[in-house]
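Morning!

This is the sequence you dropped in the shared folder:
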Amino acid sequence: TLMDLFADRGLHPLVAFNRYFDTNSDHRVDREEFVKGLKKMGHEGASEALFDDLDRDKSGYITLNEIDYMSADLWACFKAWCCTKFSSPEEMEAKLGCLFKQDFDGTVKGIRGIKKLLEGSHKPAGRGRKAVALKMSFNWAQFQEHSVRNGWYGGSEKTLFNAMDGGRGLVTVDDLNWFPNEMVRQQRRNTASQNAAKTLGSGKAVQEMRLKVQSHRDIQAFTALLRRKYGNLFRAWRKLLDPEGTMVVTRRKFFTVCRELAWNGEINTLWHALDADESGSASLEELASMEARVLGLFKRWMNDKYGNAKTSMRSLNTIKGEKTSKSASLNKDQWIEACSLAGFKGDAGRVFDLMDWECDGKVTITELQCLDNWPSPAEWLLAKPNERAACNFKDCMHKKYKHFVKAWCVGIDPIGAGKASWDDFK
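The structure's back. Tokens below.
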């Protein structure tokens, strides 16, 4: 099959489709293009028969959706995001190459000057003035960094870059020839959506729905950036958002951090996702639920057994009757052994990796004391998994909606955000 051929060549279906078949970016491949593409890939088999097998609707064309619908969904989602985020292929190229800078309030600085440079209307170098050299392309490292900084939320960055670069390792504006047609399609979709909202008289509801979807997407992009930069979200939390260990971050501090990170996504909608109750502050579980659960379970055990972090650390350090460490700090092996002897049933190694946010290979009383400042973690965060209840819930949803996809889309995620918060689930 064609998918087997792609696998043998080590190519993702999206990369192979764009690089060898859809070279004119019209989203469809006729018989001639298909045969030429296979020849470029070095395939000597029955190309015509393979085309007929894929062209099930006998339209005379093959689309990416007919080859691999998941790749088609990823590509469509990425292109729609590009046309929402950038006004032209030149702007996309420049921003992903980090030529434009976005200010704290969302305005883009430097566009006017850069546009003059692009148009060749800038002043040449003279006395007291340096010439500006522009590299009009972006490479993989730039795309990986700046796509997420600009709010890309869908992952698969390496696949998307390879789908655009033609195998050269660089993407230029010439590789973005799909952008103008996609922009026209996006504008048509927006117009149709606005007209539908007016007809239904639900413009405000639609606006609120879009805000919520965008909030979910922004938090996905933001956490992806933090994980890439810091390894785990608790390390990012302590180093960036909460260096004092208060276990909360205020709106002002959060916006300052976004500026320091050169985050070019929608900061307001990102904050809206974290501060859903509009309290003016956000806690760890609202940013990093997985890390918060690991630490929350340890905090509950620690408080139940020892009362606070200081007593806990001293007890763990003397669990064998004498001090394990004179500096009252434990390395990973010592920490895991001490927690095991003390009766902790959770993942002590994972707790150590999170608490060692300074990456010095040890956990100290000072690092542990931030857990004392953490108010009682949310009830759902510490709940014990209940498989029977989960099965009963699934049965109820299936009985009501007849299909799990419909149950998800209608009963749990009606706004199409792709995920549901605790409040949504309730």
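Headline: The beta strands are 29-30, 61-62, 101-102, 108-109, 138-139, 170-171, 248-250, 281-283.

More detail when I'm at my desk.
O.
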